[in-house]
C-alpha cells in the first residue's frame, strides 16, 4: 500500500498521558491561520469504546480478529499493544486526511519508531516528530490522579506506560524534531505553532530512485 501523494504533510505527536498534548494541539490547530487545515488520523483499536466516544470519530473499534486480519493484509503503517489492547494506524486512515488536509497522528513512541522507518527509509516522506512532556514526572502523576477516572490499578499501569514514554525520549535525544514542555499552555502553544510553521515552509528534495 502507498500514501496519497500531494502537498499535505504528516505531523506525529508523542507524549505520555497527562502531558496535555491533545489540548495543546487543539489550541494550535484552532487558531485562525491554521483552522480547517489539519485533521487527525483515526486509529484502529481493539479496546471497547469509552463513554461518549464514537466509532469512526475517536477510533475505529474492531475485534482482535478483525485487527489481526487487516494487519496480515499489510493495512497498517504501525501497530502497538497497550494494556492488552491493540492499536494501529492504517494507510487508509492517513490517506483519508492527506487528500484534503495536513495529517496529525497521536500515537506512542513504539508506533513512531515503526512509522519513521516506513516513512523516511521506505517512502522518502518527511514527517515532523513532536514530543510533548510535562514539567516533571511528579506533576504528570498528579495530573493523572486529578482526573479521577481510573482505578488505582489502572492508574499504576498508565503511570508505568508514561514512564516508558519519558524514558524513551530521554535516552533517544535525536529522535524527535521538536520537544515542548507543556508547563504553560499559552507558551507551549506559541512554541508549537512556530515549529509547525517552520516545518510546513521547508522544501524537501525527494530521494533519488538510483
From TrEMBL:
Report a single Gene Ontology molecular function.
Answer: GMP kinase activity
Source domain of life is Eukaryota
The answer to whether the entry has keyword Secreted is no
Query: According to its UniProt record, what is one Pfam family this protein matches?
Result: Guanylate_kin
GO cellular component terms listed in the entry, alphabetical order:
cytosol
Q: Which EC class heads this enzyme's classification? A: transferase
SMART domains referenced in this protein's UniProt entry, alphabetically: GuKc
Q: What EC number(s) does this enzyme carry?
A: 2.7.4.8
Q: Which InterPro entries match?
A: GK/Ca_channel_bsu, Guanylate_kin-like_dom, Guanylate_kinase, Guanylate_kinase_CS, P-loop_NTPase
- Coiled-coil segments, which residues? none
Which SUPFAM superfamilies does the record match to this protein? P-loop containing nucleoside triphosphate hydrolases
Q: Where is the Guanylate kinase-like domain?
A: 8-197
| Record keywords | ATP-binding, Kinase, Nucleotide-binding, Transferase
What PROSITE patterns does this protein map onto? Answer: GUANYLATE_KINASE_1, GUANYLATE_KINASE_2
Q: Which family does it belong to?
A: Belongs to the guanylate kinase family.
Recorded protein name is guanylate kinase
Q: Please give the organism.
A: Giardia muris
